[in-house]
Design a protein that fits this description.
10 strands, 280 residues, TIM Barrel, 13 helices, 8-stranded parallel beta sheet, alpha/beta, 13% strand
Amino acid sequence: MTIDVWMQHPTRRFLEHDMLASLRRWTGGAMPDEEIPIEATVSAMDAAGVDFGLLSAWRGPNGMDLVSNDEVAGWVRAHPNRFAGLATVDLDRPMEAVRELRRWVREDGFVGLRVVPWLWNAPPTDRRYYPLFVECVELGVPFCTQVGHTGPLRPSETGRPIPYVDQVALDFPELAIVCGHVGYPWTEEMVAVARKHENVYIDTSAYTTKRLPDELIRFMRTRTGQRKVLFGTNYPMIMHGHALDGLDELGLDDAARADYLHGNAARVFKLGGKNACRLR
């Protein structure tokens, strides 16, 4: 089984936004005339043998709602054995954000919160995040975020693992933090933070297997790193087959490979137990 922990089914609002112009260069820049059906994403997963994906909602400041929680919930309802949802919230409305997160997790089965710091120009140590971290701990779901430089033309400082992720993990040691995009050019910082903190993880989204930094690959081969790194694509920016190409060259034994592709994701996002039917 393979689980992709960072995907988004793209709405036209998402694809057409100016901030993603630099990413459209990488994907050929083709724009659909109509909304893309969720079945297209299922087909893309099937083509690469990816069994399950976590679909992210996307929200930014000033009413920027590129992929809504409602849309994600609808796609999950249509394909409950293929997807689970990651909620987004409005950082500028902290109490409403907490209530919304609670609702999506408790009532609709979302399995985590994702906030992309560069969208808000606010690192995870910004005070607006902290009520959400408390709620994540109470709900037992991870906080998912982006680390490293930004592909979109936005400042990258908010993606530094040190001091930001390090400080959040010190303040909230019970909070599971999943850091996407490997942290480049600060990958060594990201690995150090994941080694230091029991509940800090790294996902490989936005990087193909053949482009993963050497320091991350070395970490994945260690006993600690085997349980700390999760597979992700950042689909549709990177297709699943492209992301997985070269997997045999990582030098992972069978147990480490299984943990990377699905075991760590199932454990961190609690996809067993009441969510076990989703993985069938």
